[in-house]
Amino acid sequence: KQAIEDRGTTNVEAYDKYLRARALLHQQGAVELRRAIQIFRESLALDPGFVAAWYRLHETHEDAIVYSAESTEDALAGMAEAADRILALAPDAWRSHTLLAKQYIYQRRWLEAEAATCAALAAAPASEIDAVWTYERFLMATGRVSEAVQYAERARQSDPLSLMISGALQGALDFSGRVAEADAEYERSKDLPGDRAMVDYFALFRALRRGDAPAVRHLVRMVGRTLQVAGIENLPEIFDQAETMLARLRQVQPDPANQSRQFVICGWAAWHGDTALAASALRQFVIDRRSPRPGGIWHPALSGVRRTPAFKEILRDLGLVDYWRQSGKWGDFARPLGEDDFEVIR
Predict the structure, then answer these.
(1) Rounded to two decimals, what is the model's pTM?
(2) Contact, 115 vs 103, CB < 8 A?
(3) Is the Cβ–Cβ distance between 205 and 267 less than 8 Å?
């Protein structure tokens, strides 16, 4: 049992497939995630008791909600299957605490998610970063981004070649106002293999904020290819034309083909000043599609959106307001106003 919980398998071929699939997971792209799911399943066909592979399969389905066009229903089915197998095989293992934390985050049960992430951190070996990584995601989701930076840095120290972890660190640094450090980590990540779509997207908005025209021109071409929104295939030609962009964004936002591009639509709508459209796309991303990465709501480009009543409703529907009141941990972006109201401060 100890070997199953800690190492996962004694089947060399199953372990080899696991390593290949894990590398693809850390590269993040839609193609890579689909291939990772396939190879994890090939590994599990060789050893159905391989807990680590079930855990990574769960994580890959989670990321598919964010990065690929896999339906939420298909992703949920894959996550549920993996969760059932892990909890049956190793109910007391630290990975099971981490898995429960992920489930609670997805269910927006924040107090229980915090307890589970803390239990996982206490039980996990120092060499394992999954518990650290999950706690970082919890902190980002609940608006405690300044705290999240140290955990993202710990994850990077353990796995400096993971583009997924580097991207999370860039986001935590950017969201907490440490923009120069985010840019430095972005430069470091350029040699890392994987799909750079989201790190380029965040870098683009940093370049837009500082008015770096050459960087913007380069990055908007990259993002136009890797995070293409159906109906806006000519992004480099129109991205800086506010009226044209907003008209097109309003037209394409309801398109089912853009179900995995709502956060991208949100960012562009916010940049061009349509907070209502941005809030609508953000709601679809974090509420309707139930993104397991809701920490994106604290992106600096959304500061105007965060001042709207629609955003306050998103926070209530995410369960964050109840968590903040019950825990007293209001984080970096909100504070209470008496017993019945709150305000978003940035």
Answers:
(1) 0.85
(2) no
(3) yes
Distances (CA, A) of 322 to 90, 178, 268, 272: 32, 29, 30, 32
Q: Which of 5-19, 204-218, 244-258, 311-325 has the lowest mean pLDDT?
A: 5-19
| DSSP secondary structure of 296-324 | GGG-GGGTTGGGSHHHHHHHHHTTHHHHH
Q: What is the pLDDT of residue 173?
A: 98
d(CA 200, CA 150): 22
Q: What pLDDT, in 10s, does the model give residues 88-104?
A: 888 878 888 888 888 89
CB 328 within 8 A of CB 285: no
- What is the structure's pLDDT at 71? 64
Q: Which residues of 256-282 are buried (b: 16+ CB within 10 A; e: fewer)?
A: eebbbbbbbbbbbbbbbebbebbbbbb
Q: Is the pLDDT of residue 69 over 90?
A: no
CB atoms within 10 A of CB 125: 9
Residues in the chain: 346
Cα(50)–Cα(56) distance, integer angstroms: 10
Q: Give the 3-state secondary structure of residue 80.
A: helix
Amino acid identity, position 333: F
Both tokens of residue 338? 């008496």
Kindly report which listed range (12-26, 52-66, 310-324) carries the lowest average pLDDT score: 52-66
Going from the C-alpha of 104 to that of each of 109, 316, 319, the distances in angstroms are 5, 16, 11
Contacts of 122 (CB under 8 A, 6+ apart): none
pLDDT (average), residues 324-342: 95
Q: Which amino acid is at 148?
A: A
| CA-to-CA separations, 58 to 12, 55, 74, 282, 304, in angstroms, rounded | 22, 5, 12, 24, 34
Q: Quick one: average pLDDT of 110-125?
A: 93
Separation between Cα atoms, residue 134 and residue 121, nearest integer Å? 9
